[in-house]
Amino acid sequence: MKLRMESIGTTLVVKPDGELDQSCATELRTDIDREIIRTHTKNLILDLGNVTFMDSSGIGMIIGRYKQIQARGGKTMIIRPQPQVDKVLELSGLKKIVECG
């Protein structure tokens, strides 16, 4: 999985590219956490436009980042999920917790 991140003020935009599954979730989590701390991130935008597949490891990674950002008094948002990923977000109940746009 490729990962691009961009800080805009206190907002971190994360753009994973590929499959978000068990094989890459731990590395992705570590990279995002490091960037949140380094840039003093308050808000997080997860751009899932290039994620072609996501399993429960991806859901866990998103929930963990959501809790971390919430503890900082910020907001987490998911944007542009592909239809197959959007279905996983819906079935998992994550769309009821994290704002999706």
Structure description:
The protein has 101 residues and is of the alpha/beta class. It has a single domain, classed as Transcription Regulator spoIIAA (2-Layer Sandwich), CATH 3.30.750. Strands 1, 2, 3, 4, 5 and 6 form a six-stranded mixed sheet that branches. Helix 1 links the parallel strand 2 and strand 3. It starts with a strand and ends with a strand. The mean pLDDT is 96.
Features:
101 residues, alpha/beta, Transcription Regulator spoIIAA, 6-stranded mixed beta sheet, 33% strand
- Broad structural category: alpha/beta
Number of helices: 3
CATH architecture: 2-Layer Sandwich
The major beta sheet can be summarized as: 6 strands, mixed
Number of domains: 1
* Poorly predicted regions: none
Could you give the distance between the termini?
A: 23 Å
What is the N-to-C order of secondary-structure elements (H for helix, E for strand)? EEHEEHEHE
**Beta-strand content:** 25-35%
- Tell the overall outline: globular
The name of the CATH superfamily reads STAS domain
Percent range of helical residues:
40-55%
Mean pLDDT: 96
Question: In summary, what is this structure?
Answer:
With 101 residues, the chain is an alpha/beta fold.
List the helices and strands and how they pair.
Layout (H helix, E strand, L loop, with lengths): L1 E7 L2 E10 L1 H18 L3 E5 L2 E5 L1 H16 L4 E4 L3 H10 L6 E2 L1
Helix pairs in contact: 1-2
